[in-house]
Amino acid sequence: MSKGSYSKQVVFSKVFLYFILGIATVLSIFPFYWMFVMATNSNEVINRIPPAILPGDALVTNFTNVLNTIDFFGAMWNSFLVSSIITIGVLFLCSLAGFAFAKLNFKGKNFLFIFILVTMMIPPQLGLVPQYIIITKLDWLNDLKAIIVPGLIDAFGIFWMRQYISSNVPDELVDAAKIDGCSIFRVYWNIAVPVIIPAFATLAIIKFMYVWNDFLWPLIVLREKETHTIQVALRGLIDNYVRDNGMILSGTFWATVPLIIIFLLLNRMFIASLTEGAVK
């Protein structure tokens, strides 16, 4: 193959790759763009055929209707508080458990880890009734603790951290720290934590988004409007007689913006951590 033909083949491969990535990007962004278009148009324009494909001038009106219908900012604060506390708790507790399963030897370790993996196969809906009974006995109904406490530990988080620590924290480094007199927690905090920052970022993105978007469990245990999370509060925008799609999509759009911000922030930290590790 001549040098010119090889260069043309490389250029064609790059153009084709960027073309595929461009299509994937458009397909990924389009639902969010379409939601924004509907959030900026009136109900009449949304129901028109063909539908509008450009943003309208009803963004402020629709969002004002949202504020007049539900306690939007109060629900957003509840969701942010619950999601942040659960995410921080999961990162700490799951990384601690993952470190124990990856680097410590204790009786029944393999059995306990397999038991944790088995719990991942059980649908969460099967635990709603016993979990609700426990919450009722503790008198935690209509309290954010009913969401926070059960979510502080996560089987997937333990599995994820265990696998990451096993492959990225050398046993020799842990043994050297123990010989130098470090306690188990100090080995975890000073040796393991700096290495697993990328795993923290990935798990934080997954857990924060999962808790933020959770609807079923908050709907069951949070009955007072003052304790509603944003997903439960958005249900109040749906009227049985008049359906204002512009208002509904406006509330949904602004409820999605914090997720995008969190994703971008943690995604940058994830990439920066990988780059830093590669340089080291």
Automatic annotation (TrEMBL):
Coiled coil: none
Sorted UniProt keywords: Cell membrane, Membrane, Transmembrane, Transmembrane helix, Transport
TM helices/strands, residue ranges: 15-36, 75-99, 111-135, 187-212, 247-266
Acetylation among keywords: no
SUPFAM superfamilies from the UniProt entry: MetI-like
ABC transmembrane type-1 domain residues: 76-266
GO annotation, cellular component aspect: plasma membrane
Alphabetized CDD domains for the sequence: TM_PBP2
GO biological processes: transmembrane transport
Membrane topology designation: Multi-pass membrane protein
Compartment(s) where it occurs, according to its Swiss-Prot or TrEMBL record: Cell membrane
Location, primary (coarse class): membrane
Protein family: Belongs to the binding-protein-dependent transport system permease family.
Protein name: Carbohydrate ABC transporter permease
